[in-house]
Known about the structure:
Blueprint lengths: L2 H13 L4 H8 L10 H4 L10 H8 L7 H9 L1 H9 L12 H15 L5 H12 L9 H7 L6 H8 L3 H8 L11 H13 L3 H10 L14
Helix pairs in contact: 1-10, 2-12, 4-8, 7-8, 12-13
Amino acid sequence: MQAEELVRERIRDVLAVPGVDRLVAAYFDSDGPFAGTLFDLLGENPSNVLTLDDLLATTLLDISWRPLTVRALLADGGHVTAGLAAIPTNLDLWNAGPYALQSATALHQWLDQLPGVGPVIASKLLARKRPRLVPIHDDVVFRVLAPPQNKFWVTLAAALTESALRQEIEGLRPAGGDSISLLRLLDVAIWTRHSRSRNARNTRSAVGVPEPDPLPPPEKS
């Protein structure tokens, strides 16, 4: 079975959990403990300029920025602007061609190398700037979807070319959630279902979703 077919199966395993739609709705509840739509809508978010609002928004996803990193980002703002300008603003991941993915990958790799950043934080920052193209990925997402190493974006893009699967993910969209990208809906469904954080566990208990089986250990590189 091809990698994208396996990822489709794993996505559908998450979507098939009774009450997963309630988990997603709870995540985007403005009175809840999560970032919700504030991650996307906080402050100013110009397409090709990195702002302090972008840095603040990403901290809502349980990350922090080192002073050295903030200085580097502010000092190299022109580099970030040029990198963002090469990435289309209204392109969905499953429609992205090689040039768009290569441009996004190049900026992701540059951010990844900054002090204290790494691939997860880099993905969160790029997801703020290009929410339809760049998926947030962390240990939970990787362990649930188990894509081939270093091929997460292209594998997920191929999996999401199936329109029926996208419609199933769209079925999770909460009322008033028009600003939420499909990639974000998927990320939140996976994370709220499988995260071991206290807030995720409390939310599963509150909406009546049973605890998941333990995830397999992460693959060694």
